Amino acid sequence: MKKTILITGSTDGIGLVTAKTLVGLGHSVLLHGRSSAKLEAAKQQLLAVSSEAQVETYVADLSRLDQVKALALAVRERHQQLDVLINNAGVYVVPETVSPDGLDIRFTVNTIAPYWLTQQLLPLLGASGRVVNLSSAAQAPITADEMTGPSNLDDGAVYAKSKLALTMWSRHLAASIGREGPAVIAVNPGSFLGSKMVKQAYGRVGGDLQKGADILVKAALSEEFSRASGQYFDNDAGRFANPHPDALDSAKNAEIAAAIEAILANR
Ligand SMILES: NC(=O)c1ccc[n+]([C@@H]2O[C@H](COP(=O)([O-])OP(=O)(O)OC[C@H]3O[C@@H](n4cnc5c(N)ncnc54)[C@H](OP(=O)(O)O)[C@@H]3O)[C@@H](O)[C@H]2O)c1
């Protein structure tokens, strides 16, 4: 059956390859990016895969919370139902770390924006829906207060903290909504896949992006993943696995989710 799938950060890298793969399978894709020009180029690439492709484009800079809210509203205006949300947009190296909201841009894009987008789109996703969150093998302990302002730590340290925090709220949300809402799954797509992020962060070309896209397509569509809410899939190992031990601690997960809620209060 044809699904409607929103992929954040689908103007490049794993997200773009995932979008191409999904339209090739006949699904309807909602592309998202921060650049109108890159979005239009991505749309043309999808139409080259299939001239019948159903593609919409949404512009929003996820480092700005007002634009996260506007993105959710724009999707809600055009859709009453969404089958899958893939929270793929992410950053590692950024030219500026402080956001207009006074937060750290890396935590905002990688952890807080996907949380808020998911919360605002939950009514469209329903019990048969799915939320796929792009985690990473890089996961480092984080305390709740670390997300509330700019960090002085280096890009690699903040990236690993942001990805553990994303994995932690994924497990918390899955446990909170139970069977009433979508399956929520955190996925490490595979390490050192050849995107611009990997080139900037590690100075290496990296592996085949299709490996990451294929696991996201499986996470979005397969029966196996529909029963995996709250789990973490490690595509380096090719199986469901334990994330960092902190994400197995439901009290710590709840603290991270509460800290994000506090940041978002009254916005
Ligand atoms: N590649 C890997 O080996 C690897 C491993 C583990 C996890 N991941 C995760 O996989 C996801 C995709 O990464 P990738 O490797 O494919 O990197 P990428 O090629 O740099 O793609 C990142 C995407 O996110 C978008 N994005 C970045 N900042 C944004 C912002 N402020 N607002 C809106 N969109 C923004 C980018 O838009 P632009 O096109 O405008 O830059 C791009 O579309 C990330 O969450 C990453 O952490 C990747």
What does this structure look like?
- The chain has 9 helices and 8 strands.
- Helix content is 46%, strand content 13%.
- The model has no long low-confidence stretch (mean pLDDT 97).
- It has an 8-stranded mixed beta sheet, with helices on both faces.
- 50% of the residues are buried.
- With 267 residues, it is α/β, with parallel strands linked by helices.
- Helix 2 (36-49) links the parallel strand 2 and strand 3 (55-59).
- It has one domain (4-264): Rossmann fold (3-Layer(aba) Sandwich).
- Helix 4 packs parallel to helix 5.
- NADP nicotinamide-adenine-dinucleotide phosphate binds next to helix 1 and helix 6.
Give a quick precis of the structure.
The protein has 267 residues and is an alpha/beta fold. The protein is built from nine helices and eight strands.
Task: Sum up the structure in keywords.
267 residues; alpha/beta; Rossmann fold; 9 helices; 8 strands; 46% helix; globular; binds NADP nicotinamide-adenine-dinucleotide phosphate
